[in-house]
Structures are given as C-alpha cells and as structure tokens.
Amino acid sequence: MAEFETFWREDPAPLLRVEPGFVLADADPDATPGFGGRKRDAVGALAEGAEVLATLQEKFFADSTVGGTRSVLLVLQAMDTAGKGGIVKHVVGAVDPGGVHLHAFKAPTEEELAHDFLWRVRREVPLAGQIGVFDRSHYEDVLIGSVRKLAPDDVIAQRFHDIVAFEEELVANGTVIVKVMLHISSDEQKERLAARLERPDKHWKYNPGDVTERLLWNDYQAAYQRVFDKTSTTDAPWFVVPANRKWYARLAVQHLLIDALRSIDPQWPKPDYDVEHEKARLAAS
C-alpha cells in the first residue's frame, strides 16, 4: 500500500498551521488550501487518503505490540455544526477501531469538578499505539470558561499555563499532538442549524442551546484567538482548518493525521521466529 497521497497540489499542513501573527478573523472558512480539486474530486481523494492512513495506523499499532511507546492525540475544537462528528466518522472511522481511543468531553460531573480541570483529561490520553481523539477537550475550560465568565481572569490565565505544561509533558512522553479548530462562518452555521430543524431525522442533533451560544459568536472568536496566541507552540501547534466545505475539512484533517504518523515512522515488527522454518513446518502439517 502507498504511504503518500497523490492529490495535494501543495502540502496543506504549513498553510493551516497557526504561526505567530495569525489572525482568525483573516482566515477564510471557504478556502481549500493546498487542494486544487472540487467536491466531486474529494470522494476519490478521501478514499485514497484512507488507504494511506489505514496502512500507517496498522504499522503504528503493530509496532506497539513489540515495545513501541509512541501515541497520537487529535484534539478537535469548533463552534457547533462545524463537522467534528463527520471527521470522527469519515476520517478516523477509516482505521482499525481497536487502535483508536475516542472521548467526547461534556460538561464536567460533580466528581470531575472536585478535581483539577486536567484530571479528567489525563485519564483519557491515548496509550502506546493508539490514536486518541478528543471531541472537544481541555480547551473548553478556557473557551467557555472565559466567554461565560465561569472562572475569574487569573484562573483562566493559570489554566493556559497548565495546558501548555500538560502538552509539553505529553510530547516529552512520546505523544504527537494534532490540535485542530474547524473554522466555519456564522452564516454557514446558521444554514446548518436551519437544515437540522427542517429534517425530522436531524432534530435529535439540534439543541436550543446552540442558538444561545451562537449569540456569543464574536466572544467565542475572540476566545479562540486568545487560545491560539497562548497555546500554539512549536511542539503542539494549532491548525485552523476551513470547514465551510465539509469535504475539504475531512481531507485536511486526514492529511494532518497521516503527517503525524509519518513523523513517527512506524515499522513492521520483525518476527521473533524463523519464517522459512515456519513455512516448512506449516507445509508439512
């Protein structure tokens, strides 16, 4: 199986990475950085990338069975309707689920509130050979925390410091962190919410609270900007992925995961037995 995609016009990772001076308001949620095709081209491209990702993930998991210690953590953050579920289903869903650890962070329980805000997060970090996926994450504690004034400014500031230290610890222990913010426009979100209300099979996905949060759109955009300014580091950078076109967002996140696994460069484990001898034994059995 191939271990490289052939359809990118330009490597999208550097185009999506948050660098010093990045301004979220200047990022175009309709853009398709690095991809020259259209929606009709994305179906085949996603399938090609899925084969690449699955091959690398199988090597990665296999290596962990003989002592490999590395892991990958995909952090997905976004405004409501941006497509996190689609990323989990269409991108992460293309690999062996036995090598994936998915956790969706909801409002903290009473038990979780009795501990440091990172307590519940540490319990869900991926083990060796796993691709961990956080559907929302520890960043909720600084996003909602600041927008909704759930914590004073000095506590939010300390949380930023704690998050950076936590991620430095993960990286030092062998985890490659891929932090993605799926970036949609306010108009696109409005259309997606309206579409849910028009379809009975999508009513379950609609939450009246989504409109309440939507009224704070500008506050959330400012909060995300602060997150990027404070926590996009060399070893754990943020990637802002335009997500008005769901098909592009899936291709981009798929590529970022492929890049993460390539950086680890997993190898097939060497057998601890004589292959030719086992072939002979099997033939004679």
Mean pLDDT: 96
Output the structural class: alpha/beta
Q: Extract low-pLDDT stretches.
A: none
How many strands, which pairing sense, and closed or not: the largest β-sheet?
5 strands, parallel
User: How much beta, percentage-wise?
Assistant: 5-15%
Strand element count: 5
Oligomer: single chain
Radius of gyration (CA) equals: 20 Å
Organism: Leifsonia stereocauli
InterPro entries: P-loop_NTPase, PPK2-rel_1, PPK2-related
GO molecular function: kinase activity
Keywords: Kinase, Transferase
Describe the structure.
With 285 residues, this protein is α/β, with parallel strands linked by helices. It is 48% helix and 11% strand. The protein is built from 12 helices and 5 strands. The chain has helices at 12-16, 39-64, 84-90, 110-113, 119-122, 140-147, 153-172, 186-198, 208-214, 217-231, 246-264, 275-284; strands spanning 71-78, 100-104, 131-135, 175-183, 238-242. A 5-stranded parallel beta sheet has the order 2-3-1-4-5, sandwiched between helices. Helix 2 runs parallel beside helix 11, helix 6 runs antiparallel to helix 7 and helix 6 crosses helix 10. The two termini are 31 Å apart.
